[in-house]
Amino acid sequence: MGMNVTELNVNPCKCCTPLGAVTALYGIKKCMSILHGSQGCSTYIRRHMATHYNEPIDIASSSMTEQGTVFGGEQNLIKGLENLIQQYHPEVIGVATTCLAETIGEDISGIIDHFYQSHEMCRNVKIIPISSPSYAGTQFEGFFRALYGIVTHVEMDTAPNGKINIITGPITPADTRWLKILLDAMKIQYILLPDVSENLDGGHGIQYDRLPQGGTSVDDIAHMGGARYTIELGTFVGEEWSPAVYLQQQFGIPYSRLDVPCGLQAVDSLLNKLRELGGTIPTSIQKERERFLDAMIDSHKYSALGRAAIFGEPDFVKGVVNLCCENGIIPTAVITGSVCKGFEEQLRPLAEKAAGVQFVENIQIKSDMDFAGLEECMVKTHANIMIGNSDGRRVSRKLTVPLIRFGFPIHDIVGGQRLRMLGYEGSLVLLDRIVNTLLLQRNKSFRQDMYDAYYLPLVQNEPAVESAAAGKGMKVAVSYAEKDIKKRTQEHPCFTCGSGKQKYARMHLPVAPKCNIQCNYCLRNYDCPNESRPGVTTEILTPEECLNKFKQVKKMMPNLTVVGIAGPGDALANFEEVSKAVMLIRQEDPTITFCLSTNGLMLPVYAQRLIDLGVTHVTLTINAVDPKIGAQIYDHVTYMGVTYTGESAAGILLGNQLSGLTYLAEHHIVCKVNIVMLKGINEHHIETVVKKVKELGAQITNIMQLIPVKGSAFEQLPLVSNFEIMEMRKTCGVYLEQMMHCRQCRADAIGTLDNDVSILYRKEVLAAQQKASEAGEVQKHKNTCLKKRLAVATKNGMWIDQHFGQAKEFYIYESDGTEIRFVERRNVNKYCYGKENCGEKTDRMTRIIDTIHDCDAVLSLRIGNAPLTELQSKGIMAIATYDDIEHAVKKAAAGL
Amino acid sequence: MDSGVLQERADSIIIKRSGDHGCRQMDCEKASVAGSVSQRACVYCGARVVLNPITDAYHIIHGPIGCASYTWDIRGSLTSDSDLFRQSYSTDLREKDIIFGGAEKLKRAIDEIAITKQAKLIFVYATCIVGVIGDDIEAVCREAEEKHGIRVIPVKAPGFSGTKSQGYKLACDAIMNLIGNSPYKDIKKQGVNILGDFNLAGEIWLIKKYLKKIGIPVVSTITGDSSYASLMKAPSAALNVVQCAGSSVYLAKQMEETFGIPYFRVSFFGVEDTSQSIMHVAEAIGSEATIQQARVFTESEREKSLLFLKRYLPHFEGKKAAIYVGGGFKAISLIRQFREMGIDTVVVGTQTGKKEDYEVIENLVKPNTVILDDTNPAELEMFMRKMHADILVGGVKERPLAYKLGIAFCDHNHERKHALGGYEGVVNFTREVNLSLNSPVWNCLAGR
């Protein structure tokens, strides 16, 4: 469980026990598995595995029902075994339990005995019970529980055979293939359990076999009892489920449990052990080791950049931690979803040693953890790379930390089954992936990082050049030449105090209905044509409608220079619509100036995209630069799906406003800052606001009166007089140019500032004009009266799919044979008239016929003779067909 | 490998004979045969599918971890607002909870998110063993509602208690539980609700766009891209249209009874179905002008789509399709859509089709076509080979099988990342079928 939410698992970093059991069983030759439980368990697990391995995954289920749950599922399981054998002819079957079977206390071994007794001919099939309830662990434990089940249920041939047992946990098919090649190269006689190399990463041969043909055979497993030694690759599974421990206790076979061979030292340990056992290390492997070591040295300075988050099954995690630590990559956030004894105790010393070199102090290592917990650990320790399965992608995206995919499941990219991390070569493949990711990350950002760290402080301390758009010295790519922007500003009625304000017209497009903050002075409503203030509009337009309106207005208003987006909500809370509208209009008229107003909350996300879109003028409303004051002005702020109130709301908003303003100004966007003067709240703070926004690059501020809106929180706030406003503007004019002529326009204003003609361009007015021209046509249509009424027996409303006698509803149409008109859907039960007709089965026909009494014909999939006669007597024609409705109705109506 | 058809399954397989018109009865709507390797999921899955797209609700899975793990954010339901539904919350029951009961853990979990996360709406799903160990989740939810003054709705969905369809019903009941007393039920009726669309790859946005084009307002979408607030408005609609009938007709019926909102079914798969559905809505509640507008719109879209399709037709000549999907409605839509593309369907099956569905299917397809209910990999393999299918339309579990057999594949389930509904969907579907059917990789197979 995470630290943030303690009572719930939030985003699991684990799958369930039966999944692990089934995975292990895929390493056995000609083996099928059946889950004793609900149908869903097998389907979910199949889906999960199929997307990872891209192989057909067939897992049977005993398909337990309510009855089976109450009275025991023996019948279900026996039937399931029978059917599984008939369909697949397996030599081995693993019966893995689910939560349900374990909770109701099923005796699996007993049921298997009963099965053998009643199915003599199936005695040659080895059926192995595996206890794997989900509540007992994760897929990691499930994997070993299956292996344990296998070695304990196969009768062992204890005659010494000189072989070595090699037991693995969940490793990839590609790594399994490597392991086999290694053992062969070292001339070791071995029995590998399990062997998933073929069954979970099959080829495309001539013949597809639904029964897995690869894997370890039961014959081989039977010889494990006579082996001379066991190596188990994995150290975290409890001794009670360790096949190596069992073989030692039962048959006295000595064993070693080694870390999965990832990283130089872990691979060395395995090779040394194999050499001790009589293996020889060929030169080719010696060369591999030399190459790996060489690469480790080549990369060590890049490796040192890494602060890794590592998550997944315990043994996998340890393998990666080993690799990281010996290369100087510091594992700072290490978690597993399993409840794992010794996890932290084993890993912490390794991680701390690696961390000590660079004096990194905070290391988080936790077992029984979810992704919410991992995220917290990563934030605390500033992890900059993640290594684990695909489920980490959400954290990766949220924290913008790259993810190296490894482990299970990997279902958002291909190739999970072919990933390599074992052996010198496999370790090197993984190391290269990690190092290269770190390198690309650094290459991508180092210019900007250095610029921000060293250059910005230099210029920030210099006095600002007179205009932000011209100043700041920094050259970034801009979409418009500065001169062009200056000209645009002169032609923008709201950004100039000169003659432009009367000469040029602008239009506001009400394309942005949603808002992401609630200001206490604001109440947006859309249906008051007589009120004029921000936030008001009579209608909302789609981007396409915006284009239309623009075309209409442009036609009549040649002095239109500016298209603005001023709500009625916030432009950036509706970015998709806004950007689409801008693009459409830009295509229509490349010379138009785009302007928009925003509260700035989403600026950090969209500023660059605004620039890319060619927006040159932005108005930001910043009422305070102190969260304490902001908290009195904003009721709440909804940011990235979370709603904030109070000072945290105001703080988030402010931070985004300031960084957004800085960014825009640096990129030569002309920024105006609106400030609403609120008596008793920010009147003494306005000067500070003006100074601050000037410092960040605003070109003009616009101090406005509050318009008290009925129903808003500030409805009762005292008014600011004209005099007071002018005084304030004068005071602030010392620092920055002031807008004196603001009209506080509507979100759909059109025209010059002094002459709003928006009323002439409303949708309905435009539509009425268009309608007038079409009126003739509509009249013509009305004259073609649709004569026939037809009932259709359909359930799906698309085609005729009901028997007349079984119909519970009819869709009613009118048609003249060429056109068709849907009238309504009628429910048969609603059409019962009076008690005497109701309820009785024999009267069903009467009810159906009552339902369609006003129709000329009825269409159904089929109809009996009795109702046919009955209908005929009422003058209703019956037609049997399975066609789609439109076609059938037209055809029928034409024939009536 | 021999036939592999199990005796108990023989009546769930129909081979269409020439001259037959749906006269045979499919053995369907039953529990799966144990050991047959059914492709079906469970009751919990059905409930989760329908409710999960409610974007701003906390969905708590009460049970051991597996059920939460496998349903965490695997579907392509998109949101225009909250992302909460893409998080997984589970009580993650352990051995000791199985012995002593999990109700206390659940209570603490609800308390925690009600207080620290200011949750307004919580769904609690009970999985297989919750009933068996005796947790009374209804009581826990009721108490939590009183204690916190929020909605906490129980969904008792043990996997074994029926099929996926049972889960759909439970979800519909949960939605009625939520909106039954909505203050919006007394408001003047106008606009439509879209039921049974889960906004996969933004499909509900496409439908909304069409309706907006013809001037019909959408009140609420159930449950694709919905929120607590948007669902509460649903009772004020004048009409319900139902896209996925299997999951949502039951809800439409209840809303008709409770709020007096009439409903009918629609389909947005394929050119013809999409056009017809738009016309139906316009004709049902639109003005004369709206109907006219809808006619113009659907005609022009139809023309565009057919023009687009025309170019591809030579690529589809002589190709044969196999279909294995969840419900009968989608199967029938696909057969029709393939027909528009000049492709014959030679194998078709569903997980939860009804008798009438199979009757329609039998009427639609050509002689010798194989029709299957609740089939399994062995049968699919056998019939796809026998009928020489060139492409399989199904879910991700079937994909590797198709590929192993050298058969193209189109993903038509909830995990896809592109829209298959509406006119845009016709374009996507046509492209996808073409690029898989005619991929050069098949030329590398022996014998081609």
The residue ranges of chain B in which pLDDT falls below 50 over 5 or more consecutive positions are: none
- What would CATH call the class of the largest domain in chain A? Alpha Beta
Q: Quote the distance from N terminus to C terminus of chain B.
A: 23 Å
The domain count of chain B comes to: 3
**CATH C-level category of the largest domain in chain B:** Alpha Beta
Known CATH architecture of the largest domain in chain A: Alpha-Beta Barrel
* Outline of chain A: flat
Report the principal-axis shape of chain B: globular
Structural class of chain A: alpha/beta
Descriptive notes:
The complex is a heterodimer of chains A (896) and B (448). Chain A is built from 30 helices and 31 strands. In chain A, the strands form six sheets. A nine-stranded mixed sheet of chain A has the order 24-23-22-19-18-17-15-25-26, sandwiched between helices. A five-stranded parallel sheet of chain A has the order 12-11-10-13-14, with helices on both faces. Chain A is flat. The two termini of chain A are 70 Å apart. Chain B folds into three domains: 7-30 and 318-416, 3-Layer(aba) Sandwich (Rossmann fold); 43-179, Nitrogenase molybdenum iron protein domain (Rossmann fold, 3-Layer(aba) Sandwich); 183-295, Nitrogenase molybdenum iron protein domain (Rossmann fold, 3-Layer(aba) Sandwich), CATH 3.40.50. Chain B has 17 helices and 14 strands. Chain B has a six-stranded mixed sheet with strand order 1-12-11-10-13-14, with helices on both faces. A four-stranded parallel sheet of chain B has the order 3-2-4-5. Chain B has a four-stranded parallel sheet with strand order 7-6-8-9, sandwiched between helices. The longest helix of chain B has 29 residues, at 288-316. At the A-B interface, strand 1, helix 1, helix 2, strand 3 and helix 3 of A face helix 1, helix 2, strand 3, helix 3 and helix 4 of B. Strand 1 (9-10) of chain A pairs antiparallel with strand 3 (89-90) of chain B. Chain B: It holds the Pfam family Oxidored_nitro. Chain B: This protein may play a role in the biosynthesis of the prosthetic group of nitrogenase (FeMo cofactor). Chain B: It comes from Megasphaera cerevisiae DSM 20462.
